[in-house]
Amino acid sequence: MDVTTSSEILIVGAGCFGLSTAYHLLKRGFRRVTIVDRSSVIPAPDAASTDINKIVRSSYSDIYYARLAREAIAAWKDEKEWGDTYHESGVFCPLLGNDSYTDQAYVNDIALGARIENLENASAVRSVFPPGVKIGLPEEVTGYLNRDGGWAFAEEGVSRLMSKVLALGGQIIAGKQVVELLRANGSTTGVRCSDGTVFDADLIVLSAGSWTASSFPSLDLGQKCLATGQCVGLMQLTPEEGERYRKCPVYLDFNSGFYMFPPNADNVVKMAIHASGYTQMLPADGSTSPISTPRTIQSHGEQGLRIPRSALKELRQELAKVYPELAAKPFSWTRLCWYTDSPDDDWVIGPHPSDPKIMLATAGSGHAYKFLPVIGRVVADSIQGVLHPALIRKFAVDRQQNSHTVSRVGNQPRELELDQLCTPEDLLA
Ligand SMILES: Cc1cc2nc3c(=O)[nH]c(=O)nc-3n(C[C@H](O)[C@H](O)[C@H](O)COP(=O)(O)OP(=O)(O)OC[C@H]3O[C@@H](n4cnc5c(N)ncnc54)[C@H](O)[C@@H]3O)c2cc1C
Ligand SMILES: *[C@@H]1O[C@H](CO)[C@@H](O)[C@H](O)[C@H]1NC(C)=O
Ligand SMILES: *[C@@H]1O[C@H](CO)[C@@H](O)[C@H](O)[C@H]1NC(C)=O
Ligand SMILES: *[C@@H]1O[C@H](CO)[C@@H](O)[C@H](O)[C@H]1NC(C)=O
Asked: For 60-74, how does the pLDDT look when each residue is reduced to its tens digit (9 = 90+)?
């Protein structure tokens, strides 16, 4: 299909992928770019991209992402564009036993000239934390600090990018849930929304995040874009604690998957485990097999925020190993936050094999947010047919699994058991 700058482009989903794609297309002179989002409030409260913080790291075992992340970090630092969305706290990766992902990430960070401190013993590790903070890590800990990294106030970044898209003449329409792809003569011509609205387009970009597979069952994306619920815990610190922990780096252990942020402006700390997570397999019209479907605050109210009790316990155990003085505090709330996972952690960007008029831009696999300023460039290159052949293959919808070390712990996601979800009482120590 020949896409030109006067083509009508419809983007489904106003998260990291959809907004960044719109932004880069508009910068390249596209004039008719519309984003629709199912949520009546955008940024959607349950979108993966809407959050108090996300890690911004270049520490990747795959040098492609390490390089792209460094470009994103350079962009994040432009305060005229992003205000104080980005906080360069540094990212500390401990090494506790063998961990080939961290080893390879270190090699890549060094090769790309990142500001690295190699921490060869426990006292060196302690020295990168503020003096008043008690660290529980064992004596054999080593690791490294990458000063070129930190975290982003994720929702703020999304809001800022929405404003940029609007300023460039893009349209963003809330409260439009796409429920059907419209076809004529074997090719997709537009979409229909749950309220009956129809949008015609020359090209449809599906960037519906963890809802992509369940929203479009006929595209058979259930395994390639698997929705997995990830367990997040948040704690309210006192102002004194907030001051004490403020200058901590992001803590990111690829071995256990546990990571934690320094307190934000409201003295809230967020922690999670980067793992295979949980599925919620539900029957889907037009698909013979069930498809994992997000369960969130929008679908289930406050219940949709609850994580399995066992995961809450694990978070507390991991917290105790790093910051023992916080380990007895109550959690303020939890969130089941949904990744869109490909089997190899690489994104899915490219035309759907059944129809070149459908372009996928998704499968963040738990690590796409940091690329908000630049990821749309990759999608725009794909749309304009100028993506490098190696990247076409890397991100192709119908690729064979790419082989590199994945960052994730655990093998298979587990099915959510609703009677095992934590209750408000479980949040107390
Ligand atoms: C717990 C957690 C922690 C993470 N931590 C990090 C991190 O530290 N660093 C990092 O870089 N990345 C991180 N990520 C990954 C990152 O958040 C995602 O890769 C990224 O935000 C995905 O963006 P998206 O556009 O694909 O999806 P989303 O942001 O979820 O956006 C999808 C949008 O599509 C809309 N939509 C869905 N279905 C429809 C429909 N049928 N019709 C219309 N609209 C629809 C939704 O309302 C939503 O607004 C994390 C993710 C989670 C869940
Ligand atoms: C770590 O790797 C070394 C060398 O590859 C090996 O000898 C050792 O048994 C490994 N240790 C663990 C805990 O896996
Ligand atoms: C710990 O490692 C640092 C370098 O990372 C070194 O300067 C220091 O001497 C080491 N300390 C001990 C006790 O080995
Ligand atoms: C489908 O193809 C027929 C024959 O080529 C054409 O007349 C018709 O306009 C096409 N319909 C659409 C919606 O493109």
From this structure: 999 999 999 999 999
Assess whether pLDDT exceeds 60 at residue 282: yes
Residue 46, CA distances (Å) to 275, 304, 318 in order: 19, 10, 25
Position 79 in a domain: yes
Q: Which residues does a 6 A CB cutoff place in the pocket of ligand 4?
A: 184-185
Ligand 4, atom 12: nearest CA belongs to which residue?
184
Ligand 1 neighbours (beta carbon < 6 A):
12-18, 36-39, 44, 47-49, 54-55, 177-178, 207-211, 215, 230, 232, 272, 337-340, 362, 364, 366-370
Where residue 287 falls among pLDDT bands split at 50, 70, 90? confident
Residue 408's pLDDT band, with cuts at 50, 70 and 90, is confident
Predicted TM-score of the model (pTM):
0.96
Ligand 2 closest atom vs CA 98: 1
Rg for the chain (alpha carbons), in Å?
Answer: 21
Q: How far apart are CA 27 and CA 63, in angstroms?
A: 27
Q: Which atom of ligand 1 is nearest to the CA of 370?
A: 11
Exposure on the CB side of residue 114, measured as CA atoms within 13 A: 33
Q: Is the pLDDT of residue 183 over 80?
A: yes
**What is d(CA 231, CA 282) in angstroms, rounded to the nearest whole number?**
20
Atom of ligand 1 nearest to the CA of 39: 47
Q: How confident is residue 160, by pLDDT bands cut at 50, 70 and 90?
A: very high
CB of 255 within 6 A of ligand 2: the answer is no
Please state the domain count of the chain: 1
Residue 425 belongs to a domain: no
Convert the pLDDT of each residue in 307-332 to its tens digit.
Answer: 999 999 999 999 999 999 999 999 99
CATH number of the domain that residue 34 is part of: 3.50.50.60
- Whether pLDDT at 1 is above 70: no
| 262 burial type by CB count under 10 A (0-12 exposed, 13-18 middle, 19+ buried) | buried
Whole-number Å distance between alpha carbons of 201 and 203: 5
| Domain around 136 | 8-395
Q: What residues pair up with 234 in beta bridges, in sequence order?
A: 270, 333
In a domain, 402, yes or no: no
